[in-house]
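Internal tracking record. Fields below are filled automatically when a chain is submitted to the structure queue. Please do not edit lines marked as system-generated. If the sequence contains nonstandard residues, flag them in the REMARKS field before resubmitting.
Queue: standard
Priority: normal
Entity type: single polypeptide chain
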Amino acid sequence: MISPLAFFSEQFGIAVSDIEALLGVALSKGGDYADLYFEYSVTSNLNLEEQIVKSANRSVAQGVGVRVVSGERTGYAYSDEIDREAIRKAALTAAHIASSNASPGPVNVSAASPKHDLYSVPHALTEETLERRIALLRRAEQTARAYDPRIREVQSLIVDKHKLVLIATSDGMLIGDVQPLVRMNVTCIADADGNLQRGYAGGGGRDNLDFFEQKRSPEFFATEAARQAISLLDAVDAPAGAMEVVLGPGWPGVLLHEAVGHGLESDFNRKGTSAFAGLVGQRVASELCTVVDDGTLPGRRGSLNIDDEGNPTTSTVLIENGILRGYLQDKLSARLTGAGVTGNGRRESYQHVPMPRMTNTFMLGGESTPEEIIASVKRGLYAVNFGGGQVDITNGKFVFTASEAYLIEDGRITAPVKGATLIGNGPNALTKVTAVGNDLRLDEGVGVCGKNGQSVPVGVGMPTIRISEMTVGGTKG
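SYSTEM-GENERATED OUTPUT FOLLOWS
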């Protein structure tokens, strides 16, 4: 597969000497630091609904973002054209925004290769055929409909992206990466005499379509989506009030991501707007809790060989046995606070400035078995899957909708429930963790994280955990 440097050189005539000159333009009005972010990506989207292909499209995005940093001030501009003159104008615009009295010197860059190789694939996603995508979706459709005659509607979707990036910095780095990403979603609607219930499943990773042959099949996702929809046909109204809550392994880690993870990103803490600001070295959770952000897991949706500033991703311990150890850092926050870069500078595209973001964020496993945890609960809620949620990072308050949950009665999982919401405070909830399972699981690979108008792919995870008390919103008092 062609390297990003060779690709941008062959396709757009961009030479290393051009990159050095453009960085010089970016620093021509002063500035402590400048970088260029080249991107070329091809995204395919195929949707099968009511047993026919409802939509199929392919789009290409290309451009270059130019950033200039002077102290705490950042100038950013981008060009939709990968053309020397267009990039020069963007560089000059960013330079004026972040102008200073510094005297710029010559810029020299040296090409390097990423230290990680987390998602090697034998062929690019752009080489995959439409027929193969359709065949995968039809397998999901057929499996879901065969699961139960009450499955009324099935929608399946494949989205894949083949992305090449090249990053050049004024401190001499020139590095690129080829970043594949695939995802399949399956949604089922079950109908029992007008009682309509929805089930959803999906997954993927940094791979090509071989993922759905070798790792998780369309049949797996279709069966899971159909199972959820059918199980909810017998759901009872969720109870309301304070009670013990057990979170299942895997996707429920989204609660950890939202209620805690965002509050550990360095920009919020540098500005003092996070509930965790100034608490490094202090206890913020139960001693059973260790939380990690790891961008180096092979093939995972949130993993990257390099972050969007060109730094290698790392495994960062955020909370260790309940003690806050540090924050997720990008270059700007690390420069301003004196902390080390953790490889968490991320951006949605060349049109966006990078900021500290999560990659794969999860809680490490403990010593209890899931069966022991369930058996220990007299009356409570077992939350297995989550839908939407809202979080205020200034105080950690959250509200999450449980899309799949069950009652726990006398240590046994009983009836499925509908309409359950979990209401709480992230830091406070972590102090009430009273058991952590030995069944750590990461999500299947569908996470999308939003922040300041930007969306990036992420991973979440956790083992089964017991929270001694949480407010459950429902319809049954």
